[in-house]
Amino acid sequence: MKKRKTIGLLINDIDANYSNYVWTEIKRAAEKNDCNLIIYEGRSIKSFISADNQHHISYSLIDKERLDGIIVMSALISCYIPDKEFIDLCQWLRGIPLISIGVVLPFATSVIIDNKSGMKDLVNHLIKEHKYKRIIFIAGPKTNTDSIERLEAYREALGENNIKIDEKLIFNGDFLADSGYGIMNKIMQDGILYDAVVCANDEMAFGVIKCLKDLKVDMDKGGRVCGFDDCDISGRMRPALTTVRQPIREMCLCAIENILNKIENGETDDIITLPSVLVKRESCGCKNDVSLDVLRENNVRLVPGHRIHENIQTYSLEELFDCVTTVLKLCNIKGCFMSRYCGDTLYYDDEHVFGDKFFIPQYSELVYAFDNYKRLEIDDGVKIFETKSLIPDAVLSKDKRHTYLVNPLFFKNEHFGFVCFEVINDDVLNFEPIRGQISNTLKGALLIEERAKMEERFREIERLASLGQLIGGLSHNLMTPIMSISGACFGLEDLVKEYRESVGDSSVTNEDHNDIADDMMLWIRKLREYNTYMSSAISGLKSQTVQLNSDSIDEFSAGEFIDRIKFIKNNDQRFRKCKLSFSVDIDKRTIIRGDISNLVQITKNLLDNAAESYGDMEDSNKIIELFICREDRDMKLMVRDYGKGIEQQIKNKLFRLMVTTKGKNGAGLSMLLSYSTIRGKFDGRIWFESEKNYGTTFFITVPIFRVIA
Predict the structure, then answer these.
(1) Number of H helices, E strands in the chain
(2) What is the C-alpha to C-alpha distance for residues 159 and 165, in angstroms, rounded to an integer?
(3) 8 A C-beta contact, residue 672 and residue 423
């Protein structure tokens, strides 16, 4: 069976008037040609609205390997930057079938609109049929190609009609309604005389008309306003807007058909030019018979925004997901998949847009799934997936055609993950309020979750500090008696030598002398044994405590950690004799936050503990298994032995008190320190499973910070 193609659509926005019309027609064309559509809604590059710039991260979620082709709404995305800058930014899109709409990309098939002919027809219409001469022109951004061409058409039309160009009648907006409103308000305040106002797009014209209405201007006398685009509501507003129609339906169908042709055959025309057409309505002074009361489906918000806000108010993740389920059903949204980046919160700099120096986390965790109007249970085996897949393959239905909208989840510049909505109709006005409310609520929920973790970590850090003081005191107070014991040992040796030299006393037999000497030497050996153990144990614990009390935050790779453990395995005399197996199943480029020395020391403690669990057994018969792997968002470490197991009375105290699994040979500190270090320094977990005479397995998990691509 022929594989259904998947097309990526890069667009600035889908609920603004013009772009909404564009994406709707793209969606219909994709449905007609039975291809999947993934919409990356990343806003216009270098927008003056800071929140818009955070949406650019959507473009970083694109995976060229998973898409068959890409359509870029270039004119919309690049409206605030020069074409050359945009072309440079798009270099990374080379190597995949590519369609550019609005800006000519030299490595793509470009579909463009003839801006000039339509705008000249509009200005000529105002001059010749309505006899207007003082015509204000509100252009878009100065670097935008569409705006430049439409302004050139305005100038040429005035020149061809022998009307002198007055630069004071030319203004620059930003293609948004607010700029049209602001410019018109300034014109009225300054008392600039005019016959008509022409805007470089309909959005700014809407702002101009609203300003005039707010100022109570008679629209029949001072409200001659025209636009460009012929947005969906242009013909239904009052007065109905005279504008220039772009052949949007034909443009979108052309884009889909040409991208599919490029995928199949590899060749299409380099540039496809479509005409623009003047549409005469009421706002220029003409009569218009179109009904003002007809509304298209996608212009009516089916669920008011305040209903969405009221239904998504919680700071519990599980409650959030329940609320989202209610809202999705209320809004008739068929599918929604919410994912969190693995690792720490991501901070996005909009300068990285379309760049190759910014790396999205390689893996994400699916935390919420809603498909076919119902919430799904997520199996642990499919939760973690490659981020740019957007949805785990195991969850995604491969049989049905789909259209997905990708939106980032963020608060200011903190990015938590992303959400994918399945789009089945033209009503898209609810997606952004839902996304925004999820982001805000998620921020609060994560803060509470992080606060709980931090409280636990602070408790462990405080325990570490207390332990440091305790061990430091022990070291200072015990070192003197230990040295005294050492001195006594040497003194006893001298006494033994002298005593043996005095053998010959008639009252003491030689056998008595030798028995006493042997007893003295036995005590000396014991004193030396305890002295050696106590000195090395206390010195080691003091050194370890200094490391554990450090506030430095480092990071290291799994590869570096594995190499350190291999060194211990190959060079420590005890482990060289033991049957120590070491296996690894983790990407060595995985990065962990923390001090590598701490984790190495804890691992060695566990290996020592495993060796000691066999008691007096020969080292060559001791079996120890060490395994390091990835599990979801963590690096997991397991140390297993087949020794005596941990006594029941010790199990519940092992990580809380200074108890030991090693009997008289154990100091009882390493397990307590290991637990506090893993919790306080790595934000991880440590636990064990043990059965008498069947051995013990210790487990450690520490969060993965990131994976270097």
Answers:
(1) 20, 26
(2) 7
(3) no
Rounded to the nearest 5°, which phi and psi values hold at 314? -165, 160
Q: Are 422 and 333 in contact (CB under 8 A)?
A: yes
Question: Are 114 and 276 a contacting pair, CB within 8 Å?
Answer: yes
pLDDT band at 80, cuts 50/70/90? Answer: confident
Q: What is the mean pLDDT of residues 351-371?
A: 79
Q: What CATH topology corresponds to 552-709?
A: Heat Shock Protein 90 (3.30.565)
Domain extents for the chain? 6-107+333-428, 113-242+280-298, 552-709
Collapsing DSSP to helix, strand or coil, 116 comes out as helix
Identify which of 644, 649, 647 has the alpha carbon closest to the alpha carbon of residue 693: 644
Phi-psi bin for 332: left (phi > 0), alpha (psi -120 to 50), beta? left
Q: Is 289 exposed, middle or buried (0-12, 13-18, 19+ CB in 10 A)?
A: exposed
Q: Which of 103-112, 143-152, 516-525, 690-699 is predicted with the least confidence, judged by mean pLDDT?
A: 516-525
Which residue reads 């061809």 in tokens? 160
* Tens of pLDDT, residues 200-214: 999 999 999 999 999
Query: Pick the residue with more confidence: 204 or 653?
Result: 204
Tell me the DSSP string of 596-664: HHHHHHHHHHHHHHHHHTTTTS-GGG-EEEEEEEEETTEEEEEEEE-SS---HHHHTTTTTSS--SSGG
CA torsion sign for 388, 391, 394, 397 is negative
CB atoms closer than 10 angstroms to residue 590: 21
- CA triple 374-377-380, angle to 5 deg: 155
The closest alpha carbon to 605, from 652, 663, 537, 695, belongs to 537
- From CA 678, how far away is CA 565, in angstroms rounded? 17
CA-closest candidate to residue 226, choices 201, 251, 193: 201
CA distance 482 to 527: 10
Beta-bridge partner residues of 365: 340, 384
Is 92 strand, coil or helix? helix
Asked if the domains at 113-242+280-298 and 552-709 fall in one CATH topology, the answer is no
Residue 685, beta-bridge partner list: 701
CA gap 677, 543 in Å, rounded? 14
Topology of the domain covering 113-242+280-298: Rossmann fold (3.40.50)
Query: pLDDT tens digit string along 409-448?
Result: 888 888 889 999 998 877 766 787 788 777 777 766 666 5
CA–CA distances in Å: residue 335 to residues 114, 370, 390, 404, 431 = 39, 5, 13, 9, 12
DSSP state of 302: S
**Residues 6 or more apart whose Cβ sits within 8 Å of residue 515:** none
